[in-house]
Amino acid sequence: MNLIKKHKIVFLILAVILAMAAVLLAYKLAVLKSPEKIIKQYMACIEEQDYEGMYEMLDQESQDKVTKKAFITRNQNIYEGIGAKNIEITTIEGQEKKDAVQYKTVMDSSAGKIRFPNEAVVHKEQGRYRITWNDGLIFPQLGSEDKVRVQAEKADRGTIYDRSGNVLAGKGTVAAVGLIPGKMSKDKTADLEKMAGLLDMAPADIEKKLNAKWVKPDLLVPIKKLKKINEASSSTVDLENARIQEELLKIPGVTIGDEESRVYPLGEKTAHLIGYVQGISAEELESRKDQGYDQYSVIGKSGLERLYEKRLHGQDGERIAIYNKNGSEKAVVGQRPKKDGEDIKLTIDSRLQAQLYDTYQADKSCSVVLNPKSGEVMALVSTPSYDSNDFVVGMSEKRWKQLNVDPNTPMYNRYKQIWSPGSALKPVVGAIGVGTGKLDPNGDLGHSGKSWQKDSSWGGYKVTTLHEYSGPANLENALIYSDNIYFAKAALKIGADTLTKQLAQAGFGQEIPFALDMTPSQYSNDQKPIEDEIQLADSGYGQGQVLVNPLHLASMYSAFSNQGSMIKPHLEQKEETAYWIENAFDSKAADLIQQDLEKVISDPNGTGHGAQLSKIKLAGKTGTAEIKASKEDTSGTELGWFCVFSPDKTKDNSLLMVTMVEDVKDRGGSGYVVQKSKDILEKFF
After folding, report:
1. How many C-beta neighbours within 10 Å does residue 158 have?
2. Phi, psi of 8 (to 5 degrees)
3. Is residue 297 among the annotated active site residues?
4. What DSSP element (H or E) covers 192?
């Protein structure tokens, strides 16, 4: 390209730019020659944050009264402080004043829509319209010495109640430990080391708080939160907390006061169920920035706190108000009322929940209690546990490590998992056999002593049982004496196809329809077909590859009180009674199993007889599941089960309790659970 052509292109580009500038200038001049248009242009500059452009539209007298810097600062602080956007101006028809433009303003703000009428003085100056400015152009009520304040109205997080209205998670107080620097002793280093030791903190972390820019000698510096002292408790943890706070108050400058916080009155007794809240993370805030959260929000991290987060989390309110120089409120410009989080009332019985925890707190266990007639879940307990309040006040690294290295795994929620049910599954297998016609409940399958195998094809493997008895080897006796051999034979009679089909019909392999996620039960690994006769025989008495979730097991047992239909468990009182699986078992078979389970408790030879109560009829089944690395393993451990219910109770006072305890070998097996369950049942009824 030669030089002449290049010059022509440059000239054309300059010509286009000049033409566009001329059009823009002509538009601006046109705007400035119309009172209505200059007001609209002035307001349009607000959204563009072009405060300098707004200042240029003022008349000379206004510019003489207010400097550009002061004008920009005033407008910027107010408009950006209230989050002004989507500003719309509508001029009012039939205006009477010659030098005034009357208009209506509608804008969005952090407190919602703001609407107001206003008036601007506009007059010609050097051939163009200019605006006479005063603070009332921002808001009509705003004077030059007034201030606009944005005030948040904090919404309350919803409270979680039990069935009787007792608080399980709600507003309470914690002990706020603070330090007044000016009141510290001369031996500051020693005091900080002592304080850090008591609070399980590093001295450098406390010094960092004291070195913040805002800190002054007479100001209280927040250091850490602790749980409130529970004077009614004699637990080791509560006594240690009281000792720590007593020692802290001996340090010069230390204060301990009350601070509002989310609290969990039952602490570790409901921790796995209720969960806890903590400060929102940056990632969580990013995904919820349009849902009323800010950097100071707390959010549910586990349990029902997390599950019901959308319902529990309230929406903060906001007020935009004008205050005069004396600090008195002059006018409310905009307001968005706060919306407190929803309160949630559970079916949980706090008394029963606490009893179960206290009974099994030294064990690795889980318990499920529900009303088999209504499906109301009255207790969900996993032991050992942790204290939800520790997360709210701020768990130390030392405590967090203790929880995670504890061999008893207190953070592990046992009732959500699946376990080998052992003999606790026998009533289910019996109901399947009778209901499908594969098993005659009165038929005698024959005694085989304490060990049995079908034939030599099983090699050295034999099914063993603990009890021998003289009566016929029928279904009733097999349940009373918990005869493994009978149910191994029964499973072979039922057949693998029928057994797996019926177990699937009873919810195996299905998601449990419950608020909290529960691991689905299985009859074989990866829900594969039962591979051989030994696995089938073992499945008949709850071993093999059968693993059952405790809540699912409770729902299956509910069928024995509901003519074969499995109740749908629920946690909220507003939920209505419904069945998870109708006709999961044949109704006559279910009734027969219930009668036999009553004898498991009432018969002196019954494995559950130790739980018998004098005034209340009970039905139930024990279970001892062997946990072995292989069929040949003789050093494995045992799980102890006890499933018990009140067959004659009405919908209002019926109860079904399923408890599993790990490591019961050499501790009485399932009998260990039976005796503890009796104590709970006596107090309940």
Report:
1. 19
2. -65, -40
3. no
4. helix 188-199
What is the predicted pLDDT for the residue at 289? 78
Residue by residue, what is the 3-state secondary structure of 576-634?
Answer: CCCEEECCCCCHHHHHHHHHHHHHHHHCCCCCCHHHCCCCCCCEEEEEEEEECCCCCCC
- Measured between alpha carbons, how far is 344 from 351 in angstroms, rounded to an integer? 18
Mean pLDDT over residues 439-452, rounded?
95
Active-site choice (388, 420, 423, 482):
423
Question: Is the Cβ–Cβ distance between 486 and 445 less than 8 Å?
Answer: yes
Q: Which residue has the tokens 């039990």?
A: 162
Classify residue 412 as exposed, middle or buried by CB count within 10 Å of its CB (0-12, 13-18, 19+): middle
Helices and strands: H and E segment counts in the chain = 23, 23
**Cα gap 63→423, rounded to integer Å:** 92
List the structure tokens of 519. 């691991």
- pLDDT of 606 strictly over 80: yes
Alpha helical stretches, state H, 138-180: none
Please count the other Cβ atoms lying within 10 Å of the Cβ belonging to residue 205.
13
DSSP label at residue 534? H
Residue with tokens 């318990």: 367
pLDDT-derived band at 395, boundaries 50, 70, 90: confident
Average pLDDT in the 327-333 region? Answer: 94
**Contact, 624 vs 422, CB < 8 A?**
yes
Three-state secondary structure readout of 111-153: CEEEEEEEEEEEEEECCEEEEECCHHHCCCCCCCCCEEEEEEE
Note the pLDDT of residue 483: 97
- pLDDT at residue 16, rounded to an integer: 60
pLDDT > 70: percent of the chain: 94
Q: What is the Cα–Cα distance from 120 to 34, expressed in whole angstroms?
A: 13
Give tens-digit pLDDT for 503-528: 999 999 999 999 999 999 999 998 78
